[in-house]
Amino acid sequence: MNLLKKAILLKNHSGFRKYFDNTSWLLGERILRMAVSLFVGIYVARYLGPENYGLLSYANSFVGIFVALATLGLDDVVVRELVKNPEQREELLGTSFLLKIVGAVLMWVVIILTVPFTNNDIQTNSFIMIISLGVVFQAFNVIDFNFQATVKSKYVVYAQFVQLTFSSIVKLILIINEAALIWFVSVYCLDAMILALGLVFTYLHNSGNIFSWRWNFKVAKILLNDSWPLMFAYMSYLIYAKIDRLMVMEMIDEYNVGIYSAAYTLYEAPLFISLMVGKSLYPLIVKYYRENKDRLYDLYFELSSYMTLSAYLIVIFVYLFYEYLISFTFGIKYIESGEVLLFLSLGLILMFNAFLRSNYITASGNQKIILFTSIFSAILNILLNYI
């Protein structure tokens, strides 16, 4: 009965229907992406085997740790500014686009300087460089920010659906033709390019004009002043999330990276619920923070309650069926992933509210809190891995 009252209160929030519809588009796309990506990804993992799959996961994780440099922590800050100052759209999009290009170049430089300090062979380093080339196309994600701010994420979903379909077909063709590992590596770069083209087409189709985007030094200064803590916080989070695979590779081998990656794939699948809810409702959180904090606190409490309950239910399900989940999906070759999944699933209880919590902190302008907690989590994770 109490949950029913909460649901009624949540529904009665002014304008919530608009944001619920937006969330529905995002959730629908994410559910489809999760289902297709899991199916195709598992098919790829079965084809490659733990060793090659581990090598692919390692290269992707290596690049992933430095992706924060390419984003510069701008994502939520740009959305916030677009909500607050829609009349500055062209300057905000143009400035953030160029900043992301600069960030991608910075990321490449750091990767090139870091690679010599690893024990990687030439093949592994070539995989890392190929994957990193696709990051530059993520600059076009500023178009996504525009649609987030105007609560029109369905247009982004169109582009993402095209990218997902194309990527899945290519991977299946590669498996059928028994392609070498390097072709699967190249798909990462191809994915980013297809999504960028889809976003540009969708933006132009909705009367947007990328040639009207303008650089503004003052806007860049404002964005970077607010985003730098988020950039380091995001990097700390990526280190926290991906350093395990790098350390397993350095301390053991690629086979065990594959075993760990299989478990992590299933662990992170349900996190899309938290991510999409937080992403879609972020403009509403910004609005309520400025106009009605009491309503914001009510909304935050209700959403947090549902997120926490969902996390507990998923953890219970994993504990009951973890062995079956691994054998049914990745196959008997990955059966050792079961116990890893069992351990990882406990993190869902804390992670399910992470994106919502991060959105509230960003809306309130306290990004440094995210920075400090993320750095602490990353350091703790590294120390525990050594232990």
UniProtKB/TrEMBL annotation:
Localization of this protein: Membrane
Short name of one Pfam family: Polysacc_synt
Spans through the membrane: 31-49, 55-77, 97-118, 124-143, 155-176, 182-201, 222-239, 259-278, 299-322, 334-356, 368-386
Keywords (A to Z) from UniProt: Membrane, Transmembrane, Transmembrane helix
Major location (coarse): membrane
GO cellular component terms listed in the entry, alphabetical order: membrane
InterPro entries in the cross-refs: Polysacc_synth, PolySynth_Transporter
UniProt keyword Methyltransferase present: no
Membrane-related topology note: Multi-pass membrane protein
Cited PANTHER family: LOCUS PUTATIVE PROTEIN 1-RELATED
Name assigned to this protein: Polysaccharide biosynthesis protein C-terminal domain-containing protein
